[in-house]
Structure formats: structure tokens, C-alpha cells
Amino acid sequence: MASTAKNPRAIEAAKSLHHVPWCEDYERMISGMAYSQFAPELSDGRLRARRLAKKYSDYFPDDATSQSLAEDRQKMLEVAFGKIGPNATVEGPYAVDYGSNISIGADFYANFNLVILDCGLVTIGDRVFLGPSVAIFSATHETDVQSRRDGIDFSREVTIGNDCWIGGGTIILPGVTIGDGCTVGCGSVVTRDIPPFSVAVGSPARVIKTVAHVEELKRGVSIFQNRHVDGDTSFGALDQARTRTLDSVQSEAGEKEPSRII
């Protein structure tokens, strides 16, 4: 059910984001109210997002090194998304509704075919890893058929905390909050909140275990500042960190043979 009043907190949060398509329907949209997707400012915002996503996915200079490509892509993501921290990696292609409603922390990694429908605010913390074909939906509709015929939509915010690992093919539905330190197994459908430091799998996703808490780090500070060793070596620290995470999950689960969550 759509909200009936604007959300001052969401509107205030959007003021810190870049390239926001401000208009009455935008404020209604991020507030979870019914709005018209055909508002000119929103149509222009979606067009801009698609143009930037195509440019990003097609960008691969012949003389690029892994380091120069990472640096160029970082700059492109800073233009495409509302806010993004240092050392972000998104493997193309990706698709978003607006991009401007997405806020991402430091050391973010997304594998191929990321989809984020960011009609509502989508907030992702530091050191979050997404497997291939992860889909994050903040957009939804009423079940009333005439409402859909009239092009009326609404949204619910999605939040993913720090140090999360979301397995490939996972779908995260509108209104979900995933707490810090969570792991979500491949192919899961997340329909409700997941508490911090949990491992969840399935459709709908359910918590099957919890993991040890770790110390909180300062928000937005990269732990991979020196990950580029030279022009031909990239993401070494990130790969090592991902391996440590996998080893930790396998060890706690008692697995004897390697397996992949992403």
C-alpha cells in the first residue's frame, strides 16, 4: 500500500545525492507515495541513467590497463550514481532506473548484470560484494489493475549494511533491510529484513545461522587503498578479502570441499 504523506527524512537524505530529478512526483516517489512515472523530470532522469549505463558498459579502451580502467570507471560511477565511495567496482553491464537514488559505500564490488530499480532510495554500505545477476527492487505497484493501467507506481527503500555478501541471482524486494555482516546464498529471494551477522538462503530467504560480530570500522574509509600493485595487477587485496570471507563461511559451516556462494 502506498504512503499517504511525504517522508521528510527521505527528502532530506536525497539532498545529499547527485543529479536528482527534483519535482513534485520525485518527492512523492522517494516518499513511497503514489506518483506518475510520466513526469517529464522523471522521464529525463531515466533516459540519462540509460545513456550513462550504456556508455559505462561499452567503455574499454584498447590501451587500458587494469588500473587505468578501474580509475576511469570510478569516475563514471561517480557521475552515474547519487553517491559512491572509493574503490568501487561494477562489472558491466548494469541497469538502473535513475542511478541518482543509489548511495554506495567504500570498496563495493558488483559482478556482471547488476540491476537496481532505484525508484526508492537504495543505500548500500561499505565492503559489500554482489554476485552476478543480483537484482535490487525498490519499485512496486498496487495490486489494483486500474492503478497499473494509469501508470501509478510507488516505492519502498532498500538498505544493505556494511560487510555483506549477496550471492548471484539473488532478488531483494522493496522495503527490505539487510543488516551488517550478512551473507545471502545464491538464488535467494529476500522478502523481509535480515538481522545483522546472519546467513540466509532460499525463496523466501530464511536465516540458517549467525556469524561472529566484528569491530565496526569508520564509515566510508577504504581498506583497499593500495590494491593496485601495478598496471597489470588489480584487485589483489579485494580478491584476498573475498577468499578469506569464503574460507570463513566454509569453516563455520563445516564444509570440507570448496563451494561458491556467489
Automatic annotation (TrEMBL):
GO terms for molecular function: acetyltransferase activity; O-acyltransferase activity. It holds the Pfam family Mac. Residues 26-86 form the Maltose/galactoside acetyltransferase domain. Transmembrane segments: none annotated. InterPro entries: Hexapep, Hexapeptide_acetyltransf, Mac_dom, Trimer_LpxA-like_sf. Keywords: Acyltransferase, Transferase. The keyword Cell membrane does not apply. Belongs to the transferase hexapeptide repeat family. This is Maltose/galactoside acetyltransferase domain-containing protein. The lineage of its organism: Eukaryota, Fungi, Dikarya, Ascomycota, Pezizomycotina.
